[in-house]
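Its record is set out here:
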Amino acid sequence: MASSPSCSNYCYNGNKSLLASVIVSVIVVTITISSGGVAIAEGGRVPFACDPKNGLTRTLRFCWTHVPIHVRVQDLIGRLTLAEKIRLVVNNAIAVPRLGIQGYEWWSEALHGVSNVGPGTKFGGPFPGATSFPQVITTAASFNQSLWLEIGRVVSDEARAMYNGGAAGLTFWSPNVNIFRDPRWGRGQETPGEDPTLAAKYAASYVQGLQGNGAGDRLKVAACCKHYTAYDLDNWNGIDRFHFNAKVSKQDLADTYDVPFKACVLEGKVASVMCSYNQVNGKPTCADPELLRSTIRGQWGLNGYIVSDCDSVGVYYDSQHYTRTPEEAAADAIKAGLDLDCGPFLAIHTDAAIRQGLISENDLNLALANLITVQMRLGMFDGEPSAQQYGNLGPRDVCTPAHQELALEAARQGIVLLENKGNALPLSPTRVRTVAVIGPNSDVTVTMIGNYAGVACGYTSPLQGISRYVKTVHQAGCRDVACGGNQLFGAAEIASRRTDATILVMGLDQSIEAETRDRVGLLLPGLQQELVSRVARAARGPVVLVIMSGGPVDVSFAKNDPKITAILWAGYPGQAGGTAIADVIFGRTNPGGRLPMTWYPESYLSKVPMTIMDMRPNPSTGYPGRTYRFYKGPVVYPFGHGLSYSRFSQTLVLAPKQVSVSFSTPLKAQTNSTWASSSIKVSHANCDALHMGFHVDVKNEGSMDGTHTLLIFSKPPIKGNNNWSEDKKLVSFHKVLVPAGSKQRVSVGVHVCKHLSVVDEFGVRRIPMGDHELHIGDLKHSISVQTQD
């Protein structure tokens, strides 16, 4: 909010670390230890809430673990004063010493490992670091749901260990499941990519891994899916996220932007959803009851709490001027369904909002009940954690060899082989004895973990990884990724000329793409392209280009350069990224990653302002649409692209050819739509019996074991003016390991209501009648969908 001179109480300039200190300074918490305060446990620490050693709380009903949680919650709320309640609905919740309750910091992050971005987590002492997995966009490229689940499990092990040691909380505001709509978005790296199905599967899997499978309704940690909704612009062309009004159609909201969040709640059973800074169709998301109370909690049935992005309530009052007074802003948030304010706004203005009659104390009680319920599901009111399910986790369970090996395996699975001319890769260490390692990202460490990261257990840079295979000659070529004037090209050319092969590690870092920093173009920054071309011309052996980035890069020049024999995309590959890159280049790992987003040419940007949220093309204006589902123009590399050192073929073994749909509602109910004669509303169909099974044999025709990602797309029939749907959409994907020369059978489930339906212009999901086309790997198969007589 630094750009807005009208901040009434405090300003937020986009720096979340700064905001954390502002929150602490505004909400000053003083705990007095006395005979009437909090008892002191052995060792001098303040005991956990409801610690049996604390005689003060032993008789309090909210501490009785045999009592149902909802009864315990109401008992605790009934003991709180209004002033205490108000100070408990902000992220830096106060202590209530008379009830034996410590202060609690709700804000912690675990996007791809326990992070220190939020004030709730502190590294140091027995917890010097935590396992840092690849950035989410890289892990998404694995298309491996079991991997995402396992990463979540490991991250929550380390989070619980740090909580038990007093170094972290249990509420982690991750994952980011926004759709990577525009290739310039600086935070696209945090997301699972551009496809709603991929993002939804990632969201549900990672959340399930984080939250665990505790008994009953218990949670290992509480995950949070963010940022709801249609948030994917940070700072572009003078427009920032604090002032942006995303104009989104009902159709795009239903079939694109909301899909991952719905999956978070319905499939992942997530404990929290975060509303975003932006407005959607003129309303701040954190003040919109239709989005929060009606959709998230009502239609989807969230069992948890809704939190604002940090200072969002203050933003829509101070920067968006959505309400006349701050009390109205506070009231609007609570009435809309917001439970927790990341920031001090509600702590400052809720009391006056109640006194003015804008909300009641009962409204506040409902929000507080959602918060305390989650804390109790986490065991935070069950006393000392060592006696609980995860109480045995400690420092020895962080950065374990197994955890670090999983980080390496995740990086290997996420690397995408984009080009391999003449099967130049893998390189043979027996034939290639010396390698020139060149580029601004060739010896980086912190760059590899991207943003929203913590302190890694340790690093292996690309140079270090490659040096384990062959003798290397290192020349950066550029001093940094900006690669301005007065660079070191000459030394890089000499190194390339004198070695058997050249590996260029180029790309981006957080100075180019990050939170609050959207990109201005898709080309390699500065003079990087010139460096690549000059080194390639000078090289005497094969040239491998490795791109480290979150977003796509237009590398058409390299794709078309015959001297550049192979191109890899490594994303931001995490703490073990250098080992993974080298393992792929030298053939220890057979690459199997696929791009989770379209790589557009630079020319695409001139046709698509970031502020246009429409997914579908508009021929009358020349707007080309977004993502592979709607954009049909030229690309550098398409969504789902990825090569292997093996060749795979697919054969359909079992494939239904037709299915009949019966009505659960009389046909006459379908009125007022041009769709009525050619489709059925999903809500009117008997969906229970509309599941179809396919069997696909995947054969590895190469000489190297490898994993194959089987992508299944559906393409609906086109009739008259009813072409409101995608050209094709991803409906399922399967990761299968196939030994060389063998085949594996994959069972693919396709559900008519879920996978063959489309969304009309009113946001209503329908099943088009007619011939649907399934793309199963390289195969095409037609299914006739008709109404049952």
The mean pLDDT is 92. The longest strand covers residues 691-700. The chain has 21 helices and 27 strands.
